[in-house]
Amino acid sequence: MGGRQVLAARRLLAGALDGELPEHELAAAARSAVTELGSPDRLLELIAELSSGEGDPEGCARLSYRHVLGFDKLLLIDGGPRHMLRAHVWHPGAGGIGAEDIHNHRSPLASYVVRGRLAMELYEVDKDGGDGEEGGDGRVGAGGIPALRYEESLAERSADWVLKPAGPARLRLTHTGQYAAGSSYALPAHTLHRAWCDTDAPTVTLFLETGTGRRRHTDVFTTAGPHPGAVAKVPLDVRDYLATLSGLAECLRAR
Predict the structure, then answer these.
(1) Three-state secondary-structure class, residue 86
(2) Which long-range contacts (CB under 8 A, 24 or more apart) does 223-228 make?
(3) Which of 170, 75, 186, 94 is nearest to 129 (CA)?
(4) Which residues contact 50 (CB under 8 A, 6 or more apart)?
């Protein structure tokens, strides 16, 4: 199902990811695959083909939406439980209700920055506690950053996000980085992080979820106050999905 570019991408993903690999090897394979598929000319050809109706526009539209973290999440290729290839379009200043949240994922992932730039922070849970006060240099001390913790899962009869309070926590910032066009990264499922558009123009990333042993929930930490218990996902209809892909193709052509 699909044109030449869709079929080639499916073959590449299946060959790289459809074995039973340890998590670190799966993440490395995903990073290599998403880097190859994310080269601007190849991705443009894939997006243009999908925007013409190739692939599975109905199925992909149902799983494409504006994410609570503030970016457009567009499913390109649905590899079932083994992998899902998405385009993320980050708009400057377009934060959602969870834009500041620190979170992890259900499975290992890899991302390639096609256009623009992302900033990212990595965190770990501070199990030692402390007062979390800043020192004279502005850095958070051993006490870490106070936050509210949630377990995020999907509703049983819909794709809505369900957030179950899991108590207070403290986090420690472990890494900050910037990822410009041509950069890639891979993260294990449990890695806590936060990412955002770091330019005045939209940032486009190619994002690859992997793995059959996906976690039932993710961990979400917020410093912005309590969240609602559920957040609705509003999927795109097919017309809007194809129009958004066409707009993305134009964005890639204008690089």
Answers:
(1) strand
(2) 223/100, 223/145, 223/146, 223/147, 223/148, 224/100, 224/101, 225/148, 226/148, 226/165, 227/97, 227/98, 227/148, 227/150, 227/163, 228/97, 228/163
(3) 170
(4) 6, 57, 60, 76, 245
Give the CA count within 13 Å in the CB-facing half-sphere of 170: 15
Report pLDDT digits (tens) over 21-76: 899 999 999 999 999 999 989 999 999 999 999 999 999 999 998 877 778 999 99
DSSP conformation letters of 46-73: HHHHHHTT-S-HHHHHHT-EE-TTSEEE
- What pTM did the predictor assign? 0.88
Q: How far apart are CA 155 and CA 178, in angstroms?
A: 34
* Number of neighbours of residue 127 by Cβ within 10 angstroms: 9
- Helices vs strands, H then E, count in the chain: 5, 13
| Rounded CA separation 252/238 (Å) | 21
Per-residue pLDDT tens digits for 185-238: 999 999 999 999 999 999 999 999 997 778 889 999 998 777 777 777 789 999
The Cβ of residue 214 has, within 10 Å, a number of other Cβ atoms equal to: 14
| CA–CA distance, 14 with 31 (Å, rounded to integer) | 14
